[in-house]
Amino acid sequence: MNKVFKWITLVKNLQMKLKISVGVLLLSFSTLLFAQQKKTYTYAIKKGQELQLDVYLPEFSSKSEKLPTLVWMHGGGFSGGVRDNQSEIKLCETAVEQGFVAVSISYRLLRKGTTTYFGCDCPAAEKKETFKQAAIDYMDAVSFLIDNSDELHIDTGKIIAGGSSAGAEAILSAVYMPKYYLDGAYDQISFAGVFSLAGALVNLNEITSKTAVPSVLFHGIADNLVPYSKAAHHYCNPKDAGYLVLNGSDKIVDRLSLLGTSYLFYSYEKGRHEISGIPFGDLTDVFDFFKSTIVKDTHITKTISR
Length: 306
Hints:
Residues 16-34 have low confidence and may be disordered. Helix content is 36%, strand content 24%. It is of the alpha/beta class. A hairpin with a 2-residue loop joins strand 1 (37-46) and strand 2 (49-57). Helix 3 (124-147) crosses helix 5 (166-176). The protein is built from 8 helices and 12 strands. The protein has helices spanning 2-33, 86-97, 124-147, 149-152, 166-176, 178-182, 249-258, 283-295, and strands at 37-46, 49-57, 67-73, 101-105, 154-164, 193-197, 200-201, 215-220, 230-232, 245-248, 263-268, 301-305.
């Protein structure tokens, strides 16, 4: 009986230790899981539509600590997409892990429900106006973040504008063409970097020594929607209402190189518009580039061909 009692006691002790160990593991995992914070704010109301943004924050060593910040604009042809889909969430969480504040914004989807959407039947003037209004929404979001930079731990001198596809077209317009689209309304805002996935812009000459910033660009040479080099948007014919010539990532890099500005360019030989998807396998290198160029002021010019 004594042996049986000892075995029972031993088993109970093991069970108790196991419960404690599992509890410690769960507590550690919970702490890791909730180390990041996500806060949602309304940054503007336009024609009754609330425009919101999600701010992803790491743990801070002090209340006054401020970090470089990525402000992201999703794609979707200005007719679809959301700020909080799984890809955008994962991007922002990765940015936080890399030591950045991350923000993902909503904006007006002005082509949603239209008969022409954003293709060759959409008049070129409407395309330009869509770029303009999206750039305005983006700048309004950034203005809100700057106004609340102390609470949100944002280093206003190290804001990186990022976007995919339509979002990339909008942020490139906001950063590189503020006078063309914004008429000086947001001159108090400056950017430290650009992260563009399959984006393009109208006027390459608007990229000057004053507007050029360290940039990461991804683009497929065979992109069938947004030109890789210089060509018509959606490759429309000159007779189409939507014929609008844009300058893609290849031309933007040429311009940055001419101006002596840092860049990291991922060029995909057979890539089409799927290159606008978030490149999770390369994000460590992307954030390392921004740490080097905008934090340490290191000059980098690199093209990676795939």
